[in-house]
Design a protein that fits this description.
Length: 432
């Protein structure tokens, strides 16, 4: 009865427009209070305890730092220099600017690890360039939004950090390594339909008439941005610092590049950068902490075991259960952000992973890849909202283009499901 009330309260609050984090926390608190009606006040002490426990995890310290890195590199002009360098390599022509947008977004994923941050940084540069070359605004927004979705796969990744906190045995270095090849595969899968659509519909005809940046000059200007993933990921691999410490190193590296090298960030710019990063980090961490209350209520009320038994005993085989989970996550991804999906569903899926003995690192990659698809799948796609706003395009104008890109990344996800070694070979090779 109380378990039913838990989900009814959560869904009702969401439909009333209550923010997802508050809905999770309020529903969990009500359920805990009712479950301990004989000693209500002692039971409700679990609410603040679990709120604090949701935040008191060392790996979560990396989240505000990587969010800050994204804000710093957004304002430092690194994205523009990377775009010029990529154009100097692939040249001009129909379909080349979308290819550059995807490549640069993938590379930015090795710096910030946040999809919306990359959508803003790359979109601010690429959407205007694509508009000048004759690409429709809806198409440009779709390409940038889908490309930015690869960022939660390519390390460093905020999503993998949250997953490591929720699932024992899933280390951050192993998840970072496991996300590399699937992230690249997802990006390559987007390039094919993006270029094909551009050439089929005669987009970018003005692109061929634009000047091609000189290679060596572009390389020199982009060198500091190109070195950022090497510093971040290389330092972790060499054992110089942990993933959490790497986030702090990345912040100081970004400030050095922006304030000393390119001089695009001034002292007076630091306050809006810190404020922007602080607001976004606060949203993420408050949702994480409130979800801890919801997860505690799930375990206290004994909801997880019956749900697990119902799925396992549904008559579906192992492949059918996995397909059901993926379809459910894809649908949820259309309406919820990735962090919220993890916080709600991972506690329910952990016993299923244990029952079928799925590799927790591989399943984490599949989960994050599924969430990445949801970040640019209408109607409530966070990346698509950011890029559409920059392009001044309505969400409806992106649908005819973005569904091709959704289908392409779904094929990449199916490949990772069918061949787990795409994700697991690199962690095994590196000894994680």
């Amino acid at each position: 009865m109380i378990a039913t009330l838990l989900f009814v309260a959560f869904l009702s609050l969401m439909f009333l427009g209550v923010p997802i984090g508050a809905a999770l926390g309020l529903a969990g608190a009500v359920a805990i209070g009712l479950a301990n009606s004989e000693a209500q006040w002692f039971g409700l002490l679990a609410v603040p305890q679990n709120f604090y426990a949701g935040l008191g995890k060392y790996p979560l310290l990396a989240i505000p730092m990587f969010v800050l890195v994204g804000s710093i590199f957004d304002r430092s002009g690194v994205a523009l220099r990377l775009v010029n360098f990529a154009v100097s390599i692939v040249g001009r022509g129909p379909g080349m600017l979308p290819l550059v947008a995807i490549a640069v977004a993938m590379f930015m994923g090795g710096i910030s690890g946040s999809g919306p941050a990359t959508a803003a940084a790359v979109g601010g540069v690429m959407i205007a360039a694509m508009a000048r070359a004759g690409y429709p605004a809806g198409y440009s927004a779709s390409v940038v939004a889908s490309a930015a979705a690869t960022d939660i796969l390519i390390p460093p990744s905020v999503a993998f950090i949250v997953y490591s906190v929720l699932v024992p045995g899933a280390s951050v270095p192993a998840l970072f390594a496991a996300g590399m090849f699937p992230g690249v595969l997802a990006g390559l899968s987007l390039i094919i339909p993006a270029v094909w659509l551009a050439r089929r519909h005669g987009m970018g005809k003005l692109e061929a008439g634009l000047a091609r940046p000189p290679f060596w000059r572009s390389l020199r200007e982009a060198s500091w941005g190109l070195a950022a993933p090497v510093v971040i990921l290389g330092g972790m691999r060499m054992g110089w610092f942990t993933p959490t410490e790497a986030a702090v190193v990345a912040v100081f590296y970004g400030l050095f590049v922006g304030m000393v090298v390119h001089r695009t960030i001034r002292v007076r710019d630091l306050f809006p950068i810190l404020r922007e990063a602080g607001e976004l980090s606060a949203v993420i961490l408050v949702v994480v902490s409130l979800a801890g209350i919801f997860a505690f209520s799930l375990s206290t009320l004994g909801v997880i075991d019956p749900v697990t038994r119902a799925i396992v005993e549904s008559g579906l085989n192992e492949s059918g259960v996995l397909a059901l989970i993926i379809v459910l996550l894809l649908i949820m991804g259309m309406f919820l952000d990735g962090i919220s999906i993890m916080l709600i569903f991972v506690p329910l899926m952990a016993p299923i992973m244990a029952h079928y003995q799925w590799d927790v690192v591989w399943f984490g990659v599949v989960l994050v890849l599924t969430i990445a698809i949801g970040q640019f799948t209408p109607p409530m796609a966070v990346n698509l909202m950011v890029s559409a706003k920059i392009a001044q395009a309505r969400m409806e104008a992106t649908t005819r283009w973005v569904l091709w890109l959704v289908a392409a990344m779904c094929l990449a996800m199916i490949a990772v499901v069918a061949w787990p070694q795409i994700a697991l070979w690199l962690p095994a090779r590196l000894g994680y």
